[in-house]
Queue: 4 jobs
Job 1
Amino acid sequence: MECKIEFKDGFYGEERDDFYNFRWMAEKGKIKIINPDSYKYIQLNVFSNFRDLSQELSVFYKNNLIFKAKLLHQWHFLTFEIDEKEKEMELEFKINKIFPKFYYPNDGRTLSIRLANFKLHEDNEKYINVKDAYENALKNIEEMSKGEVFLSSYPQNLGIDLYEKCNIKPPCVYCLWDESKIMEGTFEDIKINEETFSTYGNFYSKTRKLINCSIGEPFLNPSIEKILNLFERDEKILEISTNGHCFSERILKAIEGKPLIIYISLDAASEKIYSRLRNDQFSRVYENLRKLKDIRRNGWPKIYLVFMPMKANLEDLENFFKLGKEIEADTIILRPLNLVKGKRKPVEREGYKFNYNAEVLSYKENIIIWERALIFSEKYQISVINQLFFGEEEKTRERAEIPKEANLCKIPYPICKEPWENYYILRRGIFPCCYGYKPLGEISSFANCWNLKEIVEIRKYLREGKLSPYCLESISCPIVRRYKKKKKRFLKIFFDFFKK
């Protein structure tokens, strides 16, 4: 007979957030499992608003504790084993602290955590994968919170390189194609397929999220279907960037309903602007977006439209939000154009002369664009995220006016968590963060670079609230840009004072 799960006292009605259909739980709640006989494991997604591991979930069966776990921040997997084999099982879930009422003053309910996607299964390999990824994330956070710089845990998020070729030729006017291919050298020809990830060992098995950082179009990879099936089997969420040109029926079938966050690099919402940045295929990409909208199942895959503000495309900003609304994108992503050292040769396309250095907006100009974007976000009812604020997430979540009892985090995290949580194994080298200015090793040396002395040094500086020499050379990093902006302002005040 079919196994069923019934939500009893303590669980509220089903709702939906950006990722899942879920139920809020009160301080405790009960579920009934009918016909669990042939199953061995329970798996579920849990969302905690606390960022310091202080919220804990306990599960009881017949008043006996059978599972207990510290909860990670936001959505994550939990899994545990069922020993009993009765026709019906009633499990009681208890939480040690509720989500503070400060955050939902007009909601009469008592809320603690969100729960979603209860599954019963007997796949031992899946159980171990989910369990190991959770335990590693827990250890990684604990090591980071203690300020440890030589880590025994592995990264929670792994940057990967899926494909080396692109289907836009010549490259987009702002693409750092030539520089990247020089960095890749002979490693450009390495083939990535579904078997590659087993060679990554714990760097793959213990990660929770994979982030494609290819300088190339990942959906061109001949093995992409097998790779995506592998990630789905192993309960890995994949963030993947694409130019949107190759959503063939084969690719659409491969991504249908998959746990993917697809970043579509557009930077324009009209044929005119698109052609000056990329090529004359905007109408093709537009039709692909409409197809992509129709193959989502239970909200997956996620569609994130990427807009890099630059002088060449600012007139398309509002139309970009209109496009996002039309194709039901989940989010608009604003991504600052990277700062580069030295001058690049201007590129002329469709009558527009693109001078890279002149196209980069100042911090002040980016803030003005952000204020406009917030207006459009409200007008077209589509969310927007600005990567200019990378590293400021903690500040925006917890402001000074939040009362002490509503504090969601008591851990003094470092000013940047990248070299603890993330690791990038790419053809162009090993990087400690997504904004790193140079590789710290070749792709073949990934196993030996996680605690490389250069990365340990970066962690030491960040632990002390400082930026390392490596960080300061990574001029595209928003944290570094804010630091240099602040330093420049301080020096101006200092020199102005002594001029008087």
Job 2
Amino acid sequence: MQFNTTAIVHGIKESKGQIEGRAYSSTTFHIEVDLQENSSGRSIGTVTRPFKLGSAEEFDKWAHLSKSFPIKADATFELGAGREDSTSLKLVALKPTAQATKAQ
């Protein structure tokens, strides 16, 4: 199942190179998420979580916004069922809002 939401992007990291003769290329977006309570205690606030999207070339599409971070963006995520009670959340599309507004 896919769903759209507004996300706050705090940072972007490009990764590109080779390890043991195998090439790799990716872009990681650090997106704000709410902390959730768990069995070990209470929590308040938000943190960022890394989500990979595309190759290292994706970074170039965002570089011109470097002085605007954190910024709001339109995000599409895919939610899938895993084993037992687990779920997976994958970022499948991300674009800055029309005005690339700075998050407040």
Job 3
Amino acid sequence: MAPGTFTRTEIASQPAVWQATLDEIGGWRNDHAAALAGLADRPLIVTGCGSTYYLSLHAAAVLRSVGVQAWGLPASELVYFPQTQLPRGFNMLAISRSGTTTETLWAAERYRETSPQGRLLTIGCAPDSPLTAQADISLLAPQAREQSVAQTRSFTSMTLLVQALAGALAGDSSRLDRARRLPNALADLVARERATAQQLGEDLSIERFFFLGNGPLYGIACEAMLKTKEMACSWAEAYHPLEFRHGPMSIAGPPALVVGLISDSAAAAEIAVLRDMHGLGARTLALAETRGDHDWSGVDRVIELRSGLDEWERGALYLPVLQWVGFHRALAKGLDPDRPVNLTAVIHLS
């Protein structure tokens, strides 16, 4: 079997898997109306490990945007340092692709022991997992399960489940309808930009990757960083865009690619950061909804998402092109994206 066979298939399948996921959860809100009642009135801790911790950062930001008091924390922090992290009377949303990650299970079990009146929600891809069995409410994307180690379609499909939950808690029945634009938007995006992703991935003169994202896009930037490390064993970091000027730009020279995940709220400021980094010799790439009327001078390449959605609803669309960059870089370095160095699909601790 050729290196990266599973990963290639899983990244490429995302438009179809997203569509299947959206179709399957179409009636979820109505089926769980009673269980969802009042959830938005209490604080919500969102947790996971690795990729799903980064998804928890994105999810918490999205949920805050619809009025839910939400915070994203690593599961291990909840297990070992609960006294420094937790508000009173909170509910928990635990996110896990497999539903078997040890720290996430520990966090859920501790929550059940210490908050018997609270409600546990889960997002994942495995209907019969131990985590799902503990939950009061579950949102699942079984079509997104993967054979490879690095999360690709599972992460983005679980991001769509976050959108479904946000719509349900906000009483916005049209949010899921708007998300149905994403599969076709992704198919169009990949058709336009797959060659760009391959070119960037195969360019081994790039020695450092920096992914910059604000608000709901910070967790997405962190996940892009993690994919670059996992698949391609390459130096990658993630920052809030304006924070990048406060020290990290000292290493943004000619060997670096600085990737901006451009929001709506802060687009001009984010583009200005890319322009500054270009002036320091870095190559620059922007992913934006559209070029609009912004000044893109100093940005080497602008990839338009063209989703018709705002920054709070299109997060999943930023990742597939960057997943392809990591995939092609791994192959160019003689690595197998299906078998990342030192990693396994699930972390089990005793």
Job 4
Amino acid sequence: MSTGRAPPPASVPTLTEVVSWPDEISPAPSPPAPLPAPAPTPTAIQPPPSTPAPAPPPAESDADVATRLLAQIQQQLDLAIDVRLREALTPVLARAADTLVRDARREMASALRDIVARAVDTELAKRRGK
């Protein structure tokens, strides 16, 4: 069964290893020399370690480039045509709607006059017939 850890290096002693001491006792070691003061840390932010650059994309064939460019041009043309058509058709459609409303009102008024005239004639005929 693997623990997922790498084995320790060969030069590091393990707890189960027996270490032999020299027979002679050496004089007490001299105190260690004082460590030099640490250098002041720079206040500038250090950039993170660089990561490897992503692999460049595979080279496109001429057909792929042409297809991609045609798709981009088509999107731009669609947008430009849409904007221009809206600008050109807005006043034309507004005039057409106004004309349509005027004509509809005229027709409705004429139809309403005819209906009222028939109703009045019918009612008058009933009164005369009595």
